[in-house]
Amino acid sequence: FQVKSENKKTIWNTEEVPEGSEFDDTWDPREKPEYDISFKQHVGTEDVFFGMTGKDPSTACCEDIVIKIKLPETKFSDITLDIQDKVLDLRTPKNKLLLHLPYPVNSKEGRARFLSEEEILEVTLRVSRKLDFINFS
């Protein structure tokens, strides 16, 4: 077994370390907030009535991931949110959430809004997919 690296003293390659592992801290005493992941797809009449585009209700045909995170007793100014291609990292003074996303996302085109009445942070992320017979755009 040979390590293909410029530095012979390294014990692993950077490809072997999962993305987001630098945020993982098992000793952090903050609690993990409740969250819900749902998927959203854009459908038109050609999908609903005629089935012309071949879309189905599975997550393979969804364009967006919507994550709703319950943050009781939290102000909007206390929230720190970092989104990478496969990881969502949320930190508040009381809560910490490191979430490995089910699909790669476009981290530059996400939206987040804080619903202060419900104390919920809603994050909408565009799924980054390769083009196939279902996902044309």
TrEMBL record:
A Gene Ontology term for the protein's cellular component: cytoplasm
One example of a Gene Ontology biological process annotation: axonemal dynein complex assembly
InterPro entries assigned to the protein according to its UniProt record, in alphabetical order: DNAAF6, PIH1D1/2/3_CS-like
Domain PIH1D1/2/3 CS-like: 32-127
Compositionally biased region (Acidic residues): 16-26
Spans annotated as Disordered: 1-29
Example GO molecular function: protein-folding chaperone binding
Coiled coil feature spans: none
Homology family: Belongs to the PIH1 family.
Protein name per UniProt: PIHD3 protein
Organism: Emberiza fucata
